[in-house]
Amino acid sequence: MNGLHGIIFSYEKEPGLRELVEKRMPGSIPFGGRYRIIDFMLSNLQNAGVTDVGIVLHGNYQSLLDHVGNGKTWDMSRKYGGLRILPPFADNRKYRSGQEFEGKMQALAGVRSYLEQIRQDYVVLADSDLIINIDLADVFESHLASGADITCVCTANYKQTSDATFFLLGADNKVAKTLCSPKKPEGYHCLEIYVLSKELLLRLVDECEAEEKISFRSDVLNGMGDKLDIRAYVFSGIAAQIRTVKEYYDRSMDLLQPRVYQELSTKARPIRAKEDDETPTYIAPESSCSNSLIADGCSIVGTVENCIIFPGVTVAKGATVKNSVLFKGVTIEENADVSYVIADKGVTVRRGGKLVGHESYPMAISKGSTI
Amino acid sequence: MKKECIAMLLAGGQGSRLYVLTENMAKPAVPFGGKFRIIDFPLSNCTNAGIDTVGVLTQYRPLELNSYIGSGQPWDLDRDDGGVHILPPYQSATGASWYKGTANAIYQNIGFVDMYDPEYVVVLSGDHIYKMDYAEMVAAHKKAGAACTIAVMEVPWSEASRFGIISVDGEDNITEFAEKPKEPKSNLASMGIYVFTWSKMREYLIADENNPDSENDFGKNIIPTMLNAGEKMIAYRFAGYWKDVGTLDSLWDANMDMLANGSGLDLFEHDWPIYGRSTSAPPAFLGKTAATHHSVITRGCVVEGEAENSVLSENSCIEEGASVQYSILMPGAVVKAGAKVAYAIIGENAVIGADAVVGSVPDGAEGWGITVVGPETRLPDKYELKANHMLSKNMKEVVR
């Protein structure tokens, strides 16, 4: 599909992700045994035939840069177009590193020269930390068919979260009211995926900049709602925004329902992740493994139950791991006992160690720690 | 641009001893070890050894292999200068012919090799599972000032007559070469891996082509001729894991070696990775009723039944109540509920119907052997495929 350009925002959000974002941004949090959260949106764009994508970055983005590289994984390493990384420009007074990310309109004003060069007539804006497998080609078609100025993807099945946006819808799915961070959720939960024309986007960026407005949802959706035809695209599948460790844990555990992980990566719309070149996983004779997702390159000798296991994890003899998420390269030594834990990359739990969180308060262990 | 050393990989063989598995693809494209194909081993060895230019000589059913190799990116062989090149037979001004033999295949591509003007050419086979540093072998070749170096390994005397056997003097100079001798004089077997000094090799390839009696084969013609002519030829001793997977039994064995402690086939080492083109499947899912023991599982697998001593490749599936023992499920193979699979190789995307029985545990009876279901075959529910039997996509059942 030509005609649609992707822009993904990646910036620091809530402090509720604690240890998980110590050394990375929400978009590069590992999820589902082999993905980074941003893989979902990049793959959604690729699966919809979008070839040109810009990632607007702000904050601690080194881990994200390492992960997306030149975009080859999503076939976005191209002679023309492809993936472009857009860090804050040092010479832009309003949008630069070292200060907090204030809003999408401000960030877009910071990359205005990039926006001008977009080869496509339409743009889809999305966040890097949304877990979803959505047919963006269908969203785009619906945008064209409705003649709306802006199409917003939203869902009726919301599970979270602080700092969310909600829509009250009128006839023809027109957005009647936008609620920003309401105390009580109501209507449809906005998934922060927006389709609009490049022309309108540039106009909105300029208007907002002139009036020192910075936010897409409060200044555009809410502030200009009466002047624009804003419509909703109601998505009925699985979608998750993650703002806290608990939410991260719960959405991870949801994957153990086959329906959920099957919907998140289908043969028709696969989610692609950077290749890890790991060998298959070995499961030993004395091992007992059930109800778990296990990536390649692991060696499992002990017991694993209700877990999400990333590549290169070792669970030694006699060790028990239950209801946990183990990131890449975690080592659980002999006879250790781990449950309700999220162990970040390279964590080692020493022989005989006991690490037990609680379902309502899973324990997150920082990258590289030895327990 | 000039390269010191390039590799030529012989990947044109049909691999007829793999029967139904190679009906539609060349042997080097046959899946191995859960997520690899046989050709990943020599290609990865090249890239790990710093050889960045590889010609892959294809002839039999090259479609699968061509699309698998693609640009060579998974092996880091997508280069502007060099990289991996597929070399099928082609038509020239004086006519066209198939590759008549291993030596003729290289002879027909003298022009390709000359483009890189190499000092040395490494000749490899596409049907061996092993990890080897060709750079060390080339260094030994250089140091000895040899015209040809042949990689050898010690094999049990009882098996020596199955191999090309090499006799050496005290300094590992080759004194004699015998192809599958009845009474072997040595137990050093040729591994089918050669390093040639290109200027010498070029001469012998042309002379061999002009000899109407030659079969244009390295083992049968080029090597003996060079030896008789008094060229300096040395043996390079290799002691690691190496297996020719040209037969169903050896293919099954080599897969099982992945599981066996001390077999020497360790694919977990990170200092000599084997690369492959992999699919974008989610991690393997082991369900609530899964019982997996002493097996390897790969991305995209879904296991709800039992697996023991088996290799489960990408996207393979064992449904609840099914059991798989001592078997290889190739990518996308599905074993439906209640089916029993033992000592079998299940080809790519084959489906074993519910309650079917495939293969059996060896019971000492005459005529027992590995059972094979060809790629894309759909075995009906309750079908019984006996030990040593093979079934292909067209539902033709044959006894090996």
Element layout with pairings:
The complex is a heterodimer of chains A (371) and B (400).
Chain A: E1 4-10, E2 30-31, E3 35-36, H1 37-47, E4 53-57, H2 62-68, E5 83-86, H3 104-110, H4 112-116, E6 122-127, E7 130-132, H5 136-146, E8 150-155, E9 165-169, E10 175-180, E11 188-197, H6 198-210, H7 216-222, E12 230-235, E13 239-241, H8 245-254, H9 258-264, E14 281-283, E15 288-290, E16 292-294, E17 299-300, E18 303-305, E19 308-309, E20 314-315, E21 320-322, E22 325-326, E23 331-332, E24 337-339, E25 341-343, E26 348-349, E27 354-356, E28 363-365
Helix pairs in contact in A: 3-6
Chain B: E1 5-10, E2 31-32, E3 36-37, H1 40-48, E4 53-57, H2 63-69, E5 83-87, E6 91-92, E7 95-96, H3 102-107, H4 110-116, E8 120-125, E9 128-130, H5 134-144, E10 148-154, E11 164-168, E12 174-179, E13 188-197, H6 198-209, H7 218-228, E14 233-237, E15 242-244, H8 248-257, E16 284-286, E17 291-293, E18 295-297, E19 302-303, E20 306-308, E21 311-312, E22 317-318, E23 323-325, E24 328-329, E25 334-335, E26 340-342, E27 344-346, E28 351-352, E29 357-358, E30 371-373, E31 378-379, E32 384-385, E33 389-391, E34 397-399
Parallel strand pairs in B: 1-4, 1-8, 4-5, 10-14, 16-19, 17-20, 19-22, 20-23, 21-24, 22-25, 23-26, 24-27, 25-28, 26-29, 27-30, 28-31, 29-32, 30-33
Antiparallel strand pairs in B: 2-3, 6-7, 8-13, 9-15, 10-13, 11-12, 11-13, 33-34
